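Task card 7
Instruction: Convert sequence to structure tokens.
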Amino acid sequence: MNLDLTGKRAIISAGASGIGRKTAEMFAAAGARVHVCDIDQDSLEEARAGVPGLTGSICDVSDAEAFGAFLDEGIAKLGGLDIMVNNAGSAGPTLPVEEVTLADWESCLSVNLTSAFIGTQKAVPALRASGGGSIVNLSSAAGKFAFALRSPYSAAKFAIVGFTRTCALELGKDKIRVNCIQPGAVEGARIDRVIKAKAEAQSISENEMRDKLASIAHMREFVTAADISSQILFICSEAGRHITGQALSVDAGLEGLA
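Output:
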């Protein structure tokens, strides 16, 4: 199986920790040049030190102007683009829909949905110039199943699926493939925060909430950042050259969300 990315140029949003960092590591190990942004300076410095050849800068993707400027600079620095991974995400509020403020709604959608739109818009001319390439958007199991108390997040992640499929239809003639990944609960700091918030909202312990979330997956466990990144590497490589317009679940067999 050919997973080699030698000579490929990739940009990953929120690429200094979690799924983004693991994807950057796998891309670099496969021979790609990788440029990332992140909102956290310490994480970015650690990523630069830990991933050979990695470049990047601080950027808040919810600031459309700043994110657009980052992408322009990244494409120029790389000398073109072959892969765009719209990875940035925000959990948003854990509240009944009638208690979600408009500000919280807009903030959640700006990170989870609008940043993918901006990333894609900026990437397309560069990918065309390269003769094609791959765009990967991060959706979620919350873009597949109803997710109580998480209406902004779920709305954004469902929207990512429609956006992905529409872009794949538009861009296929240019040999640009567009897919999204729908992770289940991913081990790490973000799911720990979600568990805490949902446990408080449901008046149960965090351990009970964790067990509840794990119990609805066939494999009775969470997935890891490496599981997600491996799938991203596959669909961006030659091995995934005919995969496009897909919402690919990596979720240990979820049948719903708690």
